[in-house]
Amino acid sequence: MKLEIKNQSLFIEKAYINGQWVDADDSSTLDVLNPVNQEIIGRVPNCGATETNVAINAAAEAQKKWQKSHAKEKASILRDFYNLICSNQDDLARILTYEQGKPLAEAIGEIAYSASFIEWFSEETKRIYGDVIPGHMHDRRTIVIKQPVGVVAAITPWNFPSAMLARKVGPALAAGCSLVCKPAKQTPFSALAFAYLAEEAGLPKGLLNVLTGNAQTIGKALTDSTLVRKLTFTGSTEIGKMLLKECAKTVKRVSMELGGHAPFIVFEDADIEAAIAGAIAAKYRNTGQTCVCANRIYVHQDIYEQFSEGFVKEARKLQTSQGFDPLADQGPLIDEAALAKVEEHVADAKNHGGQVVLGGQPHELGGLFYEPTVIKNANDEMLVSYEETFGPVAPLFSFSTEEEVIERANNTPFGLASYFYTSDLAKSWRVSEQLEYGIVGLNTGIISTEMAPFGGVKESGMGREGSKYGIDDYLEIKYISLAGIEE
Ligand code: ADP
């Protein structure tokens, strides 16, 4: 299929290994489908262990040189890469909408967000500082330097195919590492276009490899390799736990951005209109398919009816359509499994006394489209209260005290994003400190920026992406004990 993009070179049906665009060794391919109509957009090579090992060796070779390049050289290439992402923003966004289904406006936003990580880390590469520590003996000085971890394996999901890759590529390259990336099978083209632009920016061959193909085989070759020193993964908690176990065999460094189950609390003293707007943004972005989407909306009993009415009114306005429709606020779900999960959660909520006050069924467009849905009288027995729905379903729970709602909010193995609305300063601090989450959105439903550390606690993972902390995940600390200073 020919995509409607200006620069056709960005649409590549090959894997990228050691600076070469290649097919699988046995020439087999995988189809990539448009979630709007299940038509084939294109085909990518079905790579396996052999191709993965070639990529790992190339990455190891390239990394040796890259770690010696000085900060300004790395910064300059990353800056050029950033500029190229910006100048190709429209095409990159269109590729993203074709394969992922999200509204084009959201895709354009995602590309800007991706670019921001490359820009940020092009700057941070100049700030990889060490330390000089006072000596513990007369003739000693202690010096600390930071060095790149080495070859990094990056496995990324389909919900933000561009941004989740950029959040790993930016800090890894800035730290002096090389990468072997494996994008999700549903959305490989955004990653391949990204690699094309990195090459255009002058990134030396072998530093950024993109493998398409079988997740299990490629994943195993990556985790088995002693040359791969780190795995950075964004995806489900289930696969993350499995990969953690695999990485234990060679004691790799790991960063894990796993599932979430975000509480969104609206206290009785909140600005209700602002809370509604925040909840709509936090719930329905990307058709509810983000790990920071509001999963449990807790509203104080005194304002429950008022909030619910306003929330339904706003949710009703959301237009569901294919992503290239300029009016679209919501696209299709990613695949049949995603649709089945949403249907299961809604049916279960109804069985447990939930009242569907909006949506609650597949959209009349058919296929993978589902209506924006609101469920009142949600309770803690429902699947939606403890499992990630990953769809456009907003369950509204009622609560009566601060203590109660904090306990319910924390009663989950997950700990990624949380949100709450209040106008009380003391409560702002108290609740922020007590929420067992890596991220707290206080009077906001949108928390992502390259300048802040994104990441979770508990079973939501480990490590942080973005901010001054983000580069640490790709650096080792070395201490040099310098002796013989005194004569
Ligand atoms: P989701 O449920 O959102 O698709 P997954 O955790 O299944 O999340 O997928 C996230 C990423 O992990 C994708 O790139 C997927 O291909 C990859 N993946 C899935 N299974 C494995 C595996 N066994 N080994 C390595 N990667 C895997």
The largest sheet, given as strand count, sense and whether it forms a barrel, is: 7 strands, mixed
Overall geometry: globular
Give the overall pLDDT as a whole number: 97
DSSP, total strands = 20
Our count of helices gives 13
Radius of gyration: 23 Å
* Fraction in beta strands: 15-25%
Distance between the termini: 75 Å
List the helices and strands and how they pair.
Blueprint: E1 15-17, E2 20-22, E3 29-33, E4 40-45, H1 49-66, H2 71-87, H3 89-100, H4 104-124, E5 131-133, E6 141-148, E7 151-155, H5 163-175, E8 178-182, H6 189-200, E9 208-210, H7 215-224, E10 228-234, H8 237-248, E11 253-257, E12 262-266, H9 272-284, E13 294-300, H10 304-316, H11 336-351, E14 355-358, E15 373-376, E16 393-399, H12 402-410, E17 417-421, H13 425-434, E18 439-442, E19 461-462, E20 475-482
Bound molecules: adenosine-5'-diphosphate.
The site of adenosine-5'-diphosphate (ADP) has 13 residues, from helix 7.
Characterization of this structure:
With 487 residues, the chain is an alpha/beta fold. 36% of the residues lie in helices and 20% in strands. It contains 13 helices and 20 strands. It has helices at 49-66, 71-87, 89-100, 104-124, 163-175, 189-200, 215-224, 237-248, 272-284, 304-316, 336-351, 402-410, 425-434, and strands spanning 15-17, 20-22, 29-33, 40-45, 131-133, 141-148, 151-155, 178-182, 208-210, 228-234, 253-257, 262-266, 294-300, 355-358, 373-376, 393-399, 417-421, 439-442, 461-462, 475-482. The protein has a seven-stranded mixed beta sheet with strand order 14-15-16-13-12-17-18, with helices on both faces. Strands 9-8-7-10-11-19 form a six-stranded mixed beta sheet, with helices on both faces. It has a three-stranded antiparallel beta sheet with strand order 5-6-20, with no helix packed on it. The longest helix is centred in the N-terminal third of the chain and has 21 residues, at 104-124. 53% of the residues are buried. The model has no long low-confidence stretch (mean pLDDT 97).
